[in-house]
Amino acid sequence: MENEKQLIIGIGDAGNNSIVRLRKIRLDGFGFLAINHDAKFMTGMGRVKKLLVKKADTFSKTEILYLKKEFDRVAKVVILVGLGGRTGSALTPKAIRIVHKCGINVLAILTYPFPLEKSRVPKADLAISKIKKTGCEVILRKNGDLVGKYPDVPMTTAFRLMDEELGAVLRSRV
After folding, report:
1. Is residue 18 part of a domain?
2. How many angstroms separate the CA atoms of 64 and 33, rounded?
3. Which tens digits make up the pLDDT trace of 6-32?
4. Confidence (pTM)
5. Quick check: 172 and 6 in contact, CB under 8 A?
6. How many domains does the chain have?
7. I need a surface site. Which of 10, 12, 46, 132 has the fewest CB within 10 A?
8. Is residue 1 part of a domain?
């Protein structure tokens, strides 16, 4: 495949936030695509490709065609998503199936809700189940582990440090 690269897709607010942080650490050989239902949220993302979806739980035919075009010349897709909300939990399994239909491998990096976000846990568990059925490679990160790993820093810093670790993992897989 000519011009092989890896595409990092952030789905929903948490996935989009991860993209913003990862872009700051400059990952060579990676492209970025943000997918969200919230136009206002996406305006602060800077220069990154964006797909504003009409519905938070499904892709339209036009959106699917756009995604397939983005997957041209892509060797691997990494999907970043925070689970338990509406957009990421609903769209991630569907996005993985679209990528697989294009013959591309997917690494899904899923972030599980904080323990105090009890109302998000059932939706997160359901999304994990659907994602695992797609057969893609899965890495599960738990927000609850951040507090123990980075006890003396603000949460925004802990998220940044977690994404810097993720960047190192992705660099090692290129």
Report:
1. yes
2. 14
3. 999 999 999 999 999 998 888 888 999
4. 0.92
5. no
6. 1
7. 46
8. no
